[in-house]
Amino acid sequence: MWKIAIIDDDQQVLQGMRKAIPWDRLNAEWVGEAMNGEDGLRMIRRERPDIVITDIYMPVMNGLDMIERLRDEQFDGKIVILSGYSDFEYARKALRLNVCDYLSKPVSLPTLHSVLGQIVADLSEDEEKRMEQEDLHRKLSLYAPFVEQEWIKSAVSGTLTESYLRSGAIPAPYRHWARGSHLVLAVDIARDARFSGLSLPDLHLFRFAVRNIATELAGAAFETFEHTELYGTRSALVLHAERETDPSAIEARVAELGMKLIDAVRSYLKLTLFLGVGGIKSDWREISDSTEEAFHAIDRKSRPLAAGYALYSNGGKDADAASGTAPIRPVKFYQELAAALKLSHEQQANELIDAFVGQLKEANEATPAYLQMLARELWTIFAYSLYEVGMVLDEMFPDERLRQERSAIAQPEQLAEWLKGKVSFICNSRQWKGNSKHRQAVDFMIQYIHENYREEITLADLADKVYISRNYLSNIFKNTTGESFNTYLTRVRMEKAKELLMERRMLVYEVAESVGYKNVPYFSTLFKKFTGMNPTELAK
Prior knowledge:
This protein is an alpha/beta fold.
């Protein structure tokens, strides 16, 4: 409720104003009164009213001096002057003090109601904006860790936009990247017999366990580092050192870290890791180059760093760049393709495939073995990425048939054709358009909304209940119902409100509260937007 205070040295005016103000209609309440500016100042400081109605001529302290003191104290409530004197100098000073209106005594009821009604409408609008800002701030603070992790992943995989790279902007927690040297330790879980027996949920758990082991060991070897999941079985550690540190000393520390990581994962998880070490970079914007070099070392099994360990380095040299051709960047391609596939953007996925295969052909290094390795890697990425949005590829493609198809790939064009065929099937399949998990999730959401529309419901809360990320749940809901989650929720609430208003047993503010709105003016605005009528028209 809006709080209103009245200050006047005439007791009859105080009593008359209390009777004249339409409290229920304004959703307002009386919180105090005073008969001079000094008492009024104390009362306002104590009660913090939203609206102050005050006279000017009063004993001890006049109304304008009181208002000036309030403004000096940053009081931002709405103030209305009600005075028996229409003095131009008073009006000018009142304007300077940001007074909402200057009314002359005696004021008519229609004028008083109109002025207060407009002030309450302005307060409601200000409150709505404030709540939106607070909600935005809350969401930003909640999603800050997620946003930062996505920024790290983009920086590591090379998917930051060119404008972002040119600006050189770095999130506050990672501004140390602007100093020192950096390199990437690439981590890949070997697809051996042990791996083949894992389900996708198990793979999620094992990735989590590998990350925990990797971060614990990295913390003991390097003062600063970051870990980021990439796709499928692959992740990366970004390791930082002082810029003056001897490169050979850094490589020795990384080799020791790599051996410990391989041993620990083999001992505790019974999994085999392949690790690759990228080149040392002095500019953080080149970290993605180190990532590509690190995974290139794994794929080519180049330059083992320790006997008996699958720990490789290419010495920071990009084979494609050295040969004069455009560098092949599979990490960036994998990341962008996974994102396009999860959003069912077939055209974008095909464009990415064409561009990448064009690079393969230009590099003239695409052996059948390398192409088949890429196909296997990409299929793992497809399966893992789509599992995150509730789609299980094992239910759509027999494993034996996939192995046969991959073994037949010998040319870059064949890889492109195979990938595009799979992308098209996935994006246009009935399972993607409405697979059972998605349909069940949407059905649950609809039922939940109809049963709990009176309560505060957020998409984030429902995402937690159906175990699907908020962004993908939003896409699923809109694709299935044709409406966004918030629009659907509001429409259900407005339909329920319409039913209650037509029964004519409740006042408008009661109906608003019963369908989840405490702000009556905001409810009225939404109701008119959805029904074309004011709620008061139905309540009569």
